[in-house]
Write a structure and sequence with these properties.
309 residues
Amino acid sequence: MPIEALTVGRVGVDLYPEQSGVPLAEVATFAKSLGGTATNVAVAAARLGRRTGVLTKVGPDGFGDYVRQALTGFGVTPEHVGTSPDLQTPVVFCELNPPADPPLLFYRSPIAPDLTLTEADVPWDVVRSVPLLWVTGTGVSTEPARATQRKMLEARGRREHTVLDLDYRPMFWPDAATARAEIGWMLDHVTVAVGNRAEVEVAVGTAEPDEAADRMLARGLRLAVIKKGADGVLVATPEGRWTVPPQRIEVVCGLGAGDGFGGALVHGLLSGWDPVRIAEYANAAGALVASRLACADAMPTAAEIEEML
């Protein structure tokens, strides 16, 4: 069966402390997990029954083998995972201090394999025809991935369910102005955008959710999803807008919650749900991930989300 959703971008191996609330220097042991925004979203959607794939690259090392094996185990096709022969698969350390917003230490130098995607790596027929294509802000932070992702969006032709995860991490950019220009270009070529207040401020110049939604819709988007933390989630379409309240949980690790939200967003869009139902469902998925340790391994099932709702 052909895949229903293709995500494009970051992959890595996350190393999570098994001791919480202490600085990285005092951590004694780590647990390994599959990670990376685009990869986690594909896993989260697969956990909800969707056929997904991820377009990315790894190094010719044991961690690259682990990525492919882990994807297969999660039900995500590794068919579009390439190899950069001269680079290493990225690893990411996190410090559960504080658990709600853990600092990250990225090992992606001199460049991550997923940022070396070229036209030769792209399954063009899939890009044009897949029911949902998911791209990220980080994916245009440098060349050659920037030009490749732009060409993918041009080939897609703003087909329905072309989704941009704003995914702004300042350590991947020379400055916010460059990020705004590059992410802004993508806003003119997608139908859906999702991000938190800080990310929408970089993308459209304001962190005020309603104004940010206005600016995104004015650029031709059909759906803007703005995560407001403890204030819930704003969903806006040309026909109206709604704020969905947050789910209250005890946070174990805030990492991956946004990706769990993203996988549920993918599922909701492919299911044809209305924006409010999508946001409620995605909110619950993100909350469940935040109540657990790890990212990909923590993605919830449909039954768990329905139980929380």
